[in-house]
Amino acid sequence: MGETRDPHSEWTFLTSHARVLLAISRDPGIRLRDIASACGVTERTVQAIVTDLERAGYLVRSRADDGRRNRYGIVQGSRFRHPAESDHQIAGLLALLADPPGPTASADR
Predict the structure, then answer these.
(1) Which residues contact 2 (CB under 8 A, 6 or more apart)?
(2) What is residue 100's predicted lDDT score, i.e. its pLDDT?
(3) Cα–Cα distance for residue pair 38/4, rounded to 1 Å
(4) 75-103: string of b/e by CB count within 10 Å (b at 16+)?
(5) DSSP state for residue 70 in the 8-state scheme
(6) Longest dimension (CA), the chain
(7) Which of 39, 48, 72, 89 is the most buried (most CB within 10 A)?
């Protein structure tokens, strides 16, 4: 007999904040709508997360050359917020996860 999982007990290692920051690191000109779709959250949630990340000093927002869209930059040297990881820069995590997920032979093992 198979074990059923409680859908309310599922969790992930990365927060929505981390996923948004990762999406921006992959494409600094990405639209909030596309981040929302990729992260599985609402556009309004992404707007709030981007604001959080800006206020915390992880992200800067500027106008793209076309004057219509935003571009985002990740602040170099930013460190993790939790005291247990505060001596590590977020750049390491972003580099580790920089490539979009795709099928790999080792993932099936």
Answers:
(1) none
(2) 65
(3) 27
(4) eeebeeeeeeeeeeebeebbeebeeeeee
(5) E
(6) 59
(7) 72
Q: Give the gyration radius of the chain's Cα atoms.
A: 16
N- to C-terminal Cα distance for the chain?
Answer: 23
pLDDT digits (tens, 9 = 90+) for 13-42: 899 999 999 999 999 999 999 999 999 999
pLDDT at residue 109, as a whole number? 46
* Structural contact between residues 15 and 81, judged by C-beta atoms closer than 8 angstroms: no
Residue located via tokens 């596309």: 34
Are the beta carbons of 70 and 63 closer than 8 angstroms?
A: yes
Q: Which amino acid is at 64?
A: A
- Which single residue is written with the structure tokens 């007990």? 9
**Residues pairing with 70 in the sheet:** 63
